[in-house]
Design goal:
Blueprint (H helix, E strand, L loop, with lengths): L5 E4 L6 E3 L2 H7 L3 H11 L2 H8 L4 H11 L4 H9 L5 E4 L1 H13 L3 E6 L6 H7 L8 E4 H4 L6 H10 L7 E5 L2 H9 L3 E4 L3 H10 L3
Helix pairs in contact: 4-5, 6-11
């Protein structure tokens, strides 16, 4: 197996604590109502369509048409989107900081993120400028786990999937990466990630 020269990070859930519950805890009375809304109305499939490039306005209008009784809550999803950001995940940012300082590995990011909310994140988190390149699904109109999105890394940047390591908190995305021969870590916590990297002698 070829040595690892490049590390590719997912962002949401790995370096950035994004969770719609932070917003909906302000708008709904209890966790059961929040879970119902996020499981049956503003679903992850719906949100991922915006991550894949559908305009936020169009996605919102479609959902309001389907569930008019939830209009106010639906409009809050992107209208108050920054309130879903819980800050950076300090332990993972520490790992990224150490990797950057050591300079042994090229650092890139591959994220499912709306192109319209991406500028908010860029302003909020300085460490996003440390990557040598970032692919944002909403800008590329494709998203994980589509193989073409991973392959675009090789086309766009000076890296090879065969000498890269990918870190993502979504097992579906990790399995898709592994199927392409991209070594991957299923992120569960900064401590677990540090342990996995030590095992790989990184």
């Amino acid at each position: 197996m070829k040595p690892i020269t490049t590390i590719i990070f997912d962002l949401g859930g790995v370096l950035i604590d994004w969770n719609p519950r932070y917003l909906y805890r302000k708008l709904l009375d209890n966790e059961a109502e929040i879970e119902h809304f996020l499981t049956h109305i503003a679903t992850s499939d719906w949100n991922e369509a915006q991550d894949a490039g559908r305009p936020l306005e169009e996605g919102t209008a479609l959902l309001v048409d389907t569930h008019p009784e939830y209009e106010q809550l639906i409009r809050a999803f992107y209208g108050r989107w920054p309130e879903m950001l819980g800050g950076s995940i300090a332990g993972t940012v520490d790992i990224l900081t150490q990797l950057k300082k050591e300079g042994k590995y090229d650092l890139f990011a591959l994220t499912n993120w709306s192109g319209e909310t991406w500028p908010i994140a860029l302003k909020e988190y300085d460490f996003l400028s440390w990557f040598q390149g970032v692919l944002v699904s909403g800008e590329e109109k494709m998203r994980k786990p589509a193989p073409a999105f991973y392959q675009l890394l090789e086309e766009r940047f000076p890296l090879k999937l065969s000498t890269s390591l990918f870190i993502d908190d979504n097992l579906r995305n990790v399995e898709a990466a592994r199927a392409l021969g991209l070594r991957s870590i299923h992120f569960q916590s900064p401590e677990q990630l540090r342990g996995e990297l030590i095992k790989l002698e990184i």
